[in-house]
Protein 1
Amino acid sequence: MKKLVLTGAAGRLGSYLREPLSRMAEELVSTDIAEDIGKLYDGERYVQADLAQYDAIAPVLEGADMVVHFGAIVDEKPFEELLGPNFVGSYNIWEAGYRAGVRRIVYASSIHAVGMHKKADFIGVYAPHRPDTFYGLAKCFTEDLGSMYWDKRGLESVHLRILSAAQVNNPRALGSWLSYDDLIQLVTRAVDTPSVGFSVIYGVSNNDRCPVDNAKASFLGYRPKDNAEQFAEAVLAEASPADLSDPGEMCHGGPFAKVDLGQSGIAQMSIVDDRKKS
């Protein structure tokens, strides 16, 4: 590829994607609302832009072959706060991408698009939407947006329903963990698979306790290698017994399935900010 665009480049997951993506195209254009993202990799260029402003983000996509769209507010917030970056921002990426002739968009969707499904149901990629929050609703919106742009305009997209790409420090993560190495493989396969149409795939490692079924997305070639079971003994030794009446314990969305709409789900978690330094 000549040009690849990464949104959300200043975020924790974006920090791990920048270097491998810089090797997949002649030019990687990284973008975010942050003033800068530190030292750039060979072939990488940074552009500060607000996803919610079409006139700001559209020029970034001009001449791009593909977009890896990880930019968003990554937590539950009141709807009004999410509307710009998470809803309008997605529309801006798809519309600007279509007008610019982009071939494919790889989107950081989330388990929270289906977060109210029970973990015991072992849902697949065709499970109906059951968002747990306004944040999850934005993921549903963007998945449907991607489906519509494929059906009506032929713009390919892969929607990565990431479960939890963070250090394993709680029982839920023993099933939901996505290691950074597997994240990189997942995004790479979404970029280099020859034809994807509109596709959904769960972003999860090869965990013994994995609660979702990726079988119908196997054509994308994603074969995760890491397994959270290596952390099980230490995590379970400190865990309290599960409350079977708690949706945060029983549903895919974890804490997001439990909080009131508009209230932070991240605040109920212990996520370590271990972003990669360039």
Protein 2
Amino acid sequence: MARAPKPVVFEEDEDLPVRANPDLVGHEAAAAVLEAAARSGRLPHAWLLAGPPGIGKATLAYRFGRWLLAGGADQPPTPGAPPLHLPPENPVFRRVAAGSHADLFALRPEAGSGVRALIKIEDVRRAIQKLALTPGEGAWRFVLVDHAETMRGEAANALLKTLEEPPPRAVLMLTTPAPDRLLPTIRSRCRRLDLAPLSEVETASVLARQRPEMPAADRVRLAAIAEGSPGQALALAEGEGLALQELVDGVLAGLATGDWRRWHAVADQVAAKRDGSAFVTFMALLRQAISGAVRQAARGGAAPGWLALRPLAEWSTLWDSLGRLAAETDVLSLDRKQAVLTALGWLTPPRR
């Protein structure tokens, strides 16, 4: 009897929603700068898009890349269209979305044998080799280095050599939430564009397009929690973010009483998921709530009542300590329940 063929397992293409996104939300000014530079005939060969995680840096980079590869700089602007507009039915748009355009190369961090995902030296070298070739489909070649701060050692130095002696008709676009982690020599050879977080209304509009089935009230709440990052809002939507935010709100509101039975129940709930995703999200939301309250108080605004339990300087120290605790627990695979209890113990004011 013939054996049944093994099922084919396809890896999820995490980059597809970004490559295939036709929308431009919140970054029209930056897109206009890119378009004007391309139309001027003096397009810088390297760009650095900097800004907080999840606000659309890679989305803008792909938008510019496909517009440039489609010959947008040589065509008159479409009346009433947003900057860098290319219709989804355009063949270049479709090939970029499919990841099959011969002149666009994307480098993204990949997890290896180590703990952290990195952009590998082999991928950088392959992209550099392709840049040395004649464009296969048009007049330009385009390389996106997403999360460029994850390059290490040889990878960063290899890219630096190309930035110092760029091939003609080639554009490299780096994105990063942490530009200070790049080599100063790399930063100095790129024209920098800083992207700001979106407004809550803009973030909610992205959620409405990506998650139309979600209740409008939940989208508004997620937009407020995400602090201008649609990427973070979508991640929270997929990872029970609203439920975890309610836990954070309850914990902070109950700090004055120090109910340890409640703290154990919270720790059990946060540590229940074996993959650790709930723990990472809970700790991130907890630190975000603290930093937001401290900023609000420092500006003279209305702050939540629990903030008065400690001086602002102590909250800042706790914010740092919680960050280290979360990182060590995640990297070293420590007991997550105990880590949550430790965090809540630090936050609970001493009894007098």
Protein 3
Amino acid sequence: MKQTAPANVLIVEDDRDISHLVELHLRDAGYNVDIAYDGADGLERALTKAYDLAILDLNLPGVEGLEICRRLRAKPSYPLILMLTARSSELDRVLGLEIGADDYLIKPFGIRELLARVKALLRRMEARSTSSDLCPEEEKVIRGGPLVIDADKRQVTLSGQDVNLTAKEFDLLFLLACHPARVYTRAQLLDLVWGMGYEGYEHTVNSHINRLRSKIEKNSAHPHYLLTAWGVGYKFASRDTWGDN
């Protein structure tokens, strides 16, 4: 039976007591763990080494956690991000999720809950190791007029020009394009793309759709591909309209 390599986890947390406690329990659970005590070191480590998961405090010296999250999400390949925050306001949580965090925990938190979140995130990553898992069809390259979505390369081009998408933007676009004319609710998209039901944070989907429209539509106010199903959610245009743009 094939052995799965232990996941590589980066902890970016300036509170050394919390860092060492989390490290101890993660190592006991079988993970490889590195620690950074400030944002600059954490960002450098995350950009230079392949991690499966980053446990990231928001309030860091040097470079704040939200900026680290933003920088990582601009890369084609990046780790899962579990945010740790003492900030309890909904605005901070929504902002973190919109930037691209996969989950969050509010301090103080229990170690058992953190380990459960870590395991759930890593299981989801393993179960859906490629974006093609979002699409049950054999088709790996989707062509919609001038828009081309390549699942294996995780690349999108528009009229031959590369479109720079974050990983979550790509996954969202690919899922919708795989099922043209099918309407998804925001809750369904959160569950399928983000992997968890972020109840109360459906605005995250709206923000990603708006950014996608700004990148692939000629006129984002009158979209050709990414359509709104009013009162329900979103859908990708039906195939018979793809060549009209």
